[in-house]
C-alpha cells in the first residue's frame, strides 16, 4: 500500500509522508490558489491509496459488537502498514484520540423517525464532527515527531511543526484542541477580531496551553486567509518554521472518518429488520466527510446511494443534475469575479438575499459555504477509473488533470454521460435553502414524528435532515443523517429558528454543561493590529525564538 496523486506523476508516498502533506485550503479557497502553497502534490493533485484493501469476509458478524476504538483500529490498520506504525502503537494512538469524547459510544445513533436516525458526531471536545479527525491527526503528528526526535540531546535541533490557519469561528477550535499541549508542535489560529460568534471565540481563546496562539486580526476572515496564504508562499519563512495546515484534504483525516460509517451501520442493523437497507445522508462542504463514506462503501459497506446535502453553495447538486462542474452558477445573474465583494440586497421575490463574498454565499450553515469542494477531485478519479479508462490508473489521473486545468482556466468542466451515470448510481444530491434549514430546525424541535421525542439540531444537521426528507426511500430503508455539530455551537441560527416556540429554552434545551461559565473563563489572545502579513510573521518569529531560548530548538 502506498499513495499516489490524483493528477499522476511518479511519486509514491508512504502513510507517514502523506499524513504530513499540509495542503492549505480552508474554505473558500479555490483550486488555483492551492498550487502555490506548500505540500500539495507537485502537480497539484491530492493523494489517494494505491488500492482499496479487503475486509475480512465475515466482518459484519465479527465486528458487530466492537467498541468504537477497536473498530477504528481494524479499519485504520488496513491503510496503515505496520512498517509505518506498529500495531500496538496505532491501537494506543486511537485509544488516546477518542478518550477525549464524552459519550461512551463516541459516535452514537439516535432514532428521530420511523425510518430515520441521527448519527451524533459532536461528542468530542469542541462539539463538532471535525474532532473525530483532528483528535486523531494531532496524536499522529505528535507520534511521528516523537519518533524523529527520539534520542536527541538537550540543545540539539529538534523536528518541529508550526500549524497556521485562519478560521471564521467553527473549525479553529477543533484544530486547537487537536494539538494543544503537544510537544514540538505549535499552532497559530487567526480569526477576525470581533467577528466570530461569542461562544466560538470563547472556545478557542480559553485554551491556555503554551503551544496555542490565538491571533485576533483587525480585519475580515478573508484578510486572515490572505495572511495565511502569504505565509505559506514565503519559502524562506516556511522552511524555517515548518508550516503545516490541518485542512480537510489531509488523507489521515478522511481515513479516520471511515469508522463512524461502519459503526453507525452496525448499530442501525441491530435495531432494524434483518433485510433492512441503510442510506447515509451527509451535509457537505469540502466533500471530506462524505468521501469517507464513499471509501466505506468501496471497502464493502452496504449502503443505498448516499445523499449529498448542500446549502445554497450548491456546486455538487448542480453537477449531479447537469454533469457540469462549474464554480459559478451560470444560470444566476450574479456572477461575481474572484475576491470581489458583493452584497445583493432585497431580491425581487421579497425573500432576504444572501450576502455574496468572492462568489461564496453566506448561509446559516457557514461550515459548508464553499465555491468548489476540494475533496471532490478524489471521487472524480474513481469515477473516471470505472467509467472511462477501463481501470487504468495513469489514464484516470491524466483525465482528472485535464479537467482540473479546465476548471482553473474556464471555471468549469463537464463530464461524459457514462461518468455522470456512475456518480448518480452512488450518490443523490439536494440543495437546501436557509429558509428550509430554519423550518427543519423548528420541525424537529416542535413537531417530531409521532412516537419520537423533540430534538434540537444545528443548522448543518438540518440541511441533511431536509435533504433526507426530499430523498425519502421505501419503508425498508433506514436513513442515517450525520449530525456534524452540536446545536449550541450555532446558537444564533438555532435561537432564531426557535424564537417563537414558547417551550424553547436555550439554556435548558441546548446549552451543554461544559459551556456553562465558558464566557467568564480566563482567555489568552494576541492582538494583531493590521493585515500586513509581516505583523503575523513577527508574532510567530517572536514566539519561536522564545521557545528556542527555553531550549526547545526547532529545525
Ligand atoms: C466542516 C463541516 C461540515 C462540512 O464537512 P466537509 O467534510 O467539508 O464536507 C459540515 N458541518 C460542520 C458543522 C462542519 O464543521
Q: Outline of this structure?
A:
This protein is of the alpha/beta class. The protein contains 21 helices and 18 strands.
Which properties best describe this structure?
555 residues, alpha/beta, Rossmann fold, six-stranded mixed β-sheet, five-stranded parallel β-sheet, 18 strands, 40% helix, binds pyridoxal-5'-phosphate, lyase
Question: What do you see in this structure?
Answer:
With 555 residues, the protein is of the alpha/beta class. The chain has a domain at 252-513: Rossmann fold. 40% of the residues lie in helices and 14% in strands. The protein is built from 21 helices and 18 strands. Helix 8 (198-205) links the parallel strand 6 (185-192) and strand 7. Helix 11 packs across helix 12 and helix 17 crosses helix 19. It starts with a strand and ends in a 6-residue tail after the last helix. The relative contact order is 0.15. Belongs to the threonine synthase family. Residues 111-333 form the Tryptophan synthase beta chain-like PALP domain. Pathway: Amino-acid biosynthesis; L-threonine biosynthesis; L-threonine from L-aspartate: step 5/5.
What are the segments in which pLDDT stays under 50 over at least 5 consecutive residues?
23-40, 333-352
Biggest β-sheet description:
6 strands, mixed
Shape: globular
Major sheet: arrangement of strands: 3-4-17-9-10-16
Nearest-integer average pLDDT: 88
GO biological process, one term: threonine biosynthetic process
GO molecular function: pyridoxal phosphate binding; threonine synthase activity
InterPro entries: Ser/Thr_deHydtase_PyrdxlP-BS (IPR000634), Thr_synth_N (IPR029144), Thr_synth_N_sf (IPR037158), Thr_synthase-like (IPR004450), Threonine_Synthase (IPR051166), TrpB-like_PALP (IPR001926), TrpB-like_PALP_sf (IPR036052)
EC number: 4.2.3.1
Amino acid at each position: 500500500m502506498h499513495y499516489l496523486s490524483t493528477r499522476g506523476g511518479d511519486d509514491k508516498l508512504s502513510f507517514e509522508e502523506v499524513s504530513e502533506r499540509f495542503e492549505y485550503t480552508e474554505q473558500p479557497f479555490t483550486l488555483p490558489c492551492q498550487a502555490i502553497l506548500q505540500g500539495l502534490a507537485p502537480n497539484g493533485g491530492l493523494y489517494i491509496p494505491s488500492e482499496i484493501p479487503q475486509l475480512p469476509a465475515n466482518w459484519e458478524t465479527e465486528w458487530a459488537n466492537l467498541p468504537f476504538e477497536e473498530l477504528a483500529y481494524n479499519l485504520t490498520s488496513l491503510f496503515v502498514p505496520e512498517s509505518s506504525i506498529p500495531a500496538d502503537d496505532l491501537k494506543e494512538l486511537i485509544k488516546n484520540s477518542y478518550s477525549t469524547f464524552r459519550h461512551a459510544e463516541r459516535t452514537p445513533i439516535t432514532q428521530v423517525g420511523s425510518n430515520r436516525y441521527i448519527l451524533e458526531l459532536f461528542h468530542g471536545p469542541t462539539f463538532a464532527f471535525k474532532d473525530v479527525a483532528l483528535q486523531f491527526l494531532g496524536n499522529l503528528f505528535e507520534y511521528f515527531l516523537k519518533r524523529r526526535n527520539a534520542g536527541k540531546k538537550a540543545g540539539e535541533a529538534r523536528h518541529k511543526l508550526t500549524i497556521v490557519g485562519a478560521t471564521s469561528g467553527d473549525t479553529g477550535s477543533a484544530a486547537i484542541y487537536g494539538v494543544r499541549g503537544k510537544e514540538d508542535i505549535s499552532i497559530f489560529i487567526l480569526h477576525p477580531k470581533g467577528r466570530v460568534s461569542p461562544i466560538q471565540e470563547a472556545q478557542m481563546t480559553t485554551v491556555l496551553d503554551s503551544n496555542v496562539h490565538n491571533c485576533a486580526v483587525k480585519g475580515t476572515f478573508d484578510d486572515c486567509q490572505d495572511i495565511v496564504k502569504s505565509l505559506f508562499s514565503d519559502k524562506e519563512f516556511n522552511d524555517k518554521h515548518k508550516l503545516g495546515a490541518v485542512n480537510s484534504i489531509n488523507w489521515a483525516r478522511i481515513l479516520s472518518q471511515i469508522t463512524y460509517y461502519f459503526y453507525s451501520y452496525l448499530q442501525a442493523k441491530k435495531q432494524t429488520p434483518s433485510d433492512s437497507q441503510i442510506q447515509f445522508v451527509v451535509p457537505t462542504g469540502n466533500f471530506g466527510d462524505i468521501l469517507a463514506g464513499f471509501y466505506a462503501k468501496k471497502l464493502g459497506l452496504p449502503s443505498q446511494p448516499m445523499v449529498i446535502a448542500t446549502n445554497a453553495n450548491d456546486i455538487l447538486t448542480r453537477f449531479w443534475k447537469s454533469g457540469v462542474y462549474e464554480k459559478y452558477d451560470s444560470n444566476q445573474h450574479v456572477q461575481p469575479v474572484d475576491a470581489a465583494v458583493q452584497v445583493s440586497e432585497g431580491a425581487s421575490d421579497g425573500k432576504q438575499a444572501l450576502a455574496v463574498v468572492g462568489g461564496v454565499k453566506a448561509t446559516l450553515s457557514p461550515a459548508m459555504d464553499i465555491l468548489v469542494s476540494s475533496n471532490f477531485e478524489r471521487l472524480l478519479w474513481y469515477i473516471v477509473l470505472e467509467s472511462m479508462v477501463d481501470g487504468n490508473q495513469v489514464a484516470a489521473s491524466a483525465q482528472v488533470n485535464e479537467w482540473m486545468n479546465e476548471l482553473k482556466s474556464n471555471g468549469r468542466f463537464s463530464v461524459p454521460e457514462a461518468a455522470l451515470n456512475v456518480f448518480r448510481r452512488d450518490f443523490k444530491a439536494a440543495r437546501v435553502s436557509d429558509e428550509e434549514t430554519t423550518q427543519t430546525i423548528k420541525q424537529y424541535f416542535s413537531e417530531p414524528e409521532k412516537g419520537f421525542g423533540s430534538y434540537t439540531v444545528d443548522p448543518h444537521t438540518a440541511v441533511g435532515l431536509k435533504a433526507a426528507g426530499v430523498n425519502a426511500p421505501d419503508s425498508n430503508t433506514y436513513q442515517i443523517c450525520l449530525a456534524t455539530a452540536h446545536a449550541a455551537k450555532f446558537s444564533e441560527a438555532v435561537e432564531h429558528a426557535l424564537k417563537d416556540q414558547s417551550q424553547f429554552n436555550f439554556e435548558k434545551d441546548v446549552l451543554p454543561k461544559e459551556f456553562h461559565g465558558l464566557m467568564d473563563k480566563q482567555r489568552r489572545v494576541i492582538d494583531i493590529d493590521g493585515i500586513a502579513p509581516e505583523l503575523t510573521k513577527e508574532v510567530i518569529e517572536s514566539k519561536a525564538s522564545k521557545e528556542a531560548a527555553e531550549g526547545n530548538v526547532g529545525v
